[in-house]
Each structure stands twice: as structure tokens, then as C-alpha cells.
Amino acid sequence: MPRITPQTELDQLLALIAAQADGMGIDAIAQSQGHRLTRRTLQRRLALLVEQGRIQMLGEARAVRYLRVLQNIKAASSSQQGQTTQAFAEVYVPTSPQGEEIKAYVRQPRAMRPPVGYRLTFLEQYHPNHTAYLPQGLRDQLHAMGTARAEQTPAGTFARDMLNRLLIDLSWASSQLEGNTYSRLDTERLIEFGQATEGKDALETQMILNHKQAIEYLVLDPAHAQVTPDCIVALHAFLSDGLMADPTAVGRLRCRAVEIGGSVYLPVALPQRLEELFGIVIQMAAEIDDPFEQAFFLMVHLPYLQPFEDVNKRTSRLAANIPLIRHNLCPLSFIDVPQQAYVDAMIGVYELNRIELLRDVFVWA
Predict the structure, then answer these.
(1) What is the CA radius of gyration of the chain?
(2) Average pLDDT of the chain?
(3) Backbone conformation region of residue 207, classed left if phi is above 0, alpha if psi is from -120 to 50, else beta
(4) Pairing of strands 116-117, 65-68
(5) Are 294 and 288 in contact (CB under 8 A)?
(6) 3-state class of 24 per DSSP?
(7) 56 membership: H or E segment, kind and range
(8) Does residue 104 lie within any of the structural domains?
């Protein structure tokens, strides 16, 4: 009678594979386990995980790699995170070992984290289409999951087809990441019927409506959805309308120094330098061929530069959808992304110039 593989052994094998965003070949897996299993036994266990839908195979013959299946990350990581999650009663995204390091650092008191300024080397180390924040295997998975239409379909077709749902989901989720207390149902009523919820701050209502206008700007006319300085500034103008302490700062690069709440990071202060760097960041983003890599680059470097007095992260989240809309890929709505995980990830970028925790958030989104 064949031996039944204990679930704990499969979980351990899955955890080993899940820790590598780019996947692992069978030789690397065997080496990591100290060759304690025969090759045939290891192949059987990998095949079982594939059959269960917990991992997938990419490539052929000796080039085969095994990767985690993204939609099952939460279940796969529960055995690793169980005690930590219970101890803190905190909703968080499944986190890589590198992401856990960043999380531990940014959770320290501010007094223990030395002040840092803008580091140009962080940007200079990135070379479009040669550097990759998202490993190839991960990008392959995202493309497989996100493809919605044939390539010959006109740009923006998929986003237009699902516009109403995108308006509600993205407006609600992105606003929630900024502390907005509107529920999804409240957001739906506001967007579809113009009914503001009683007892809500007028600024919260304005934030939701601003998202609606910005999304419509990108989706209703595909010519608008471009990675250009004009498009990014326009998104900021829509998203910040009526929300800026200085109304003249709406849709305009900032002319003064700013600080980041909860962080020891000090962004560039000189307006001329800021304008120059803004142009460089957008140009570099525009040169990136892969839409998911392009989206993630914008989520990293727009907030890091802080080109506007406020509403930088919101602008980056909408900008990240530009390449997805243009390539008819499923857009990012950021549904179920915990606010604290996103905040921790951004502080990791600001203070450490490390993107792994934000990548965990991006993958979960």
C-alpha cells in the first residue's frame, strides 16, 4: 500500500518554494533539503502540490521551475505566520523573509531609525529592461493571471467593459488606504447615485469622487492613459481637487519642503531639482516594456520622490494602472490590501530603499 505523504511535509516543501519569488528548479529544491529525499519521491510530492493547485510548473524538461500559485499565498503562509498573526491580531499580507526584515525595521520607534534623505543612487541603480524589481517568474505568473483579452483588442477595452466595478472598487480601496471610513456600499451609493453618507466628513466624500474622476480620465479616453509627466500631473489634479491646504498646489509640482508622517525620511526640497528628477523618473518608467514591472516602478519611485505637496501615494496607485489599462490587463483595485502593510512597505522604500515588502503588497493586490 503506498505511503500517504503527511500534509506537514507538503507544507514545508511549499514554504521552501514560496520563499523564492522567481521559483526553484528541482535540483535547487533537493539541495535545499539536503538531498534527504530521492529524486523520484521529490517529483511525486511536487506533482501532488501541482495537482492541489498550490504550485505551478513553468518551462520544460531540465528548465522546469516550480512557483507558488499567487491566489493561494494566504493559505500557504498561514502555517508560517499563525502564531505571529494571533499574537498581534493584525490583518497583514503574506510576507517574504525579506519583507519581514523590512517590517521589523520600520516597526521600531522613530528615535531608533536614523534620518535619511533622497538617495539618487536608488534611482541610478535601476536600468529599464535590464534591472527588474519583479523577477521573471513572478512576471510570468502575473501575466498568466492578469490577461483579460487578446492582444489585438484596442487598448483600454477591458477597463471600459468593467468600468463601473473598477470605479467602485478602486475608489473605495485606494481611499481606505488613506484612512477614509466610507464602506464599499457607501462608495457604491455615492458613485452610482450621488448619495453622500450622513455623518461622513465632506473631505472623505470628496476623496471618493476625486478617485472616480481620475479613473474615468484614464479609462474613457485611452489617449489619456500614457506614462507622461502631463498624465501624472493630471491625475494629481483630479485626485487632489478640494483636498489641498493650498489650492494652487493642485496639479502642480511642489515648491516647498515636505515631511512624511511616521517616517524619518526627508524628500528633496529644491524645486528645480525636484522638477528635474520628476522628468527622469517618468522617462525611465516610460521605457520599461513589461507592464507589471512598469506599474511597480511607478508605485516605488513616485512616492519616494514626493513630487507633490500631498496625494503622492494615491497618484502612484492610479498611475500604476496606466500600463495595465494600455495592455488590457486586469487593473489593480487594491481590494483587501491592509493599510498598515502598505504604510510599512512605503516606509521601507523611503528609509531603506528596499522594495521587497512593497512587492509582497503588490503581489497580494
Answers:
(1) 22
(2) 87
(3) alpha
(4) unpaired
(5) yes
(6) strand
(7) strand 55-58
(8) no
